[in-house]
Amino acid sequence: MRRFAAISFFALMIVMAHRASSQPGASNRVRELAPGVFYWQGDLPTKTQTNVGWVVFQDYVFVIDANFPWGAREILPEIKKSTNKPIRFVFNTHYHADHAAGNVVFAEAGASVVASEEALEESKRKGPADLASQGKGRPIEPLVHPSVVFEKRMVFDDGQHRVELTKVGPAHTKGDTVAYLPKEKILFVGDLAVNWTDGNNFSDVDADLPNWVRALDLLSTWDAPIVAPAHGVLGTMDTIRGQRAYLNAIISHVQSGIRAGKSADELSQSLDLTQYKPFGAVPTRTAGQVRTVYRALTRARSN
Which of 61, 139, 154, 277 could form a disulfide with 150 if both were Cys (CB 3.0 to 4.6 A apart)? Predict the structure, then answer.
């Protein structure tokens, strides 16, 4: 009975958050998902970029994803509204600039940057170029690389809250890592799964597509009624399963097309995935992602 009540409560929270964040002109981006666990809606309504979470431990704050510097500066006052405790850690789910460029702001506030070892390697090798390409014409600030790194798993636990970091990449990127709160049953998945129609989260440069599908298969077995994606509104396990189905459908389509000698343009025009909502709701987006997967798979075949 308690388990049913808890799941019902979480489901109600998701519906309420979705309704509030989807209202035109909504100004309140922050949702308290559970006592001491917060979620900042970055993509709606103004698409500041990348949703961010934070957990208020007994002595400090643990932030999940850093956004861009301009996003981080908008988030910092919201964190301070929720607690007067210092920000000690900011965790990057992966190296991309919309998740890690804001490290500089959190570092100035006294935080250490946490990430997987492979995310650190990608940050050093590819981070500057990615930041330059995503800078949106704004001044580029110094890129702060992770300083607290781990190979596969790291846990933050003060007896009140527990955050488990688990590397599941290579997937969207080589160093992809998720943050799971087992007590609250909340899973922060970064870009492994998004929950919006503008979800162009495939990269032919970084992605390992077969392993990405396997990573989503693994995550779909976890006990997490609330799934917090890096883009779009709060989700559930259906978000992970939907991303997996959409991604796998494109991979299968492209693999069959490559074997048949078809071009990327031919394949991009012959696939209807509008049934995979919200992922395939915009056909032009799907066409672009078909081309991305085509480049990734043809490159893998030639290597």
Answer: 154
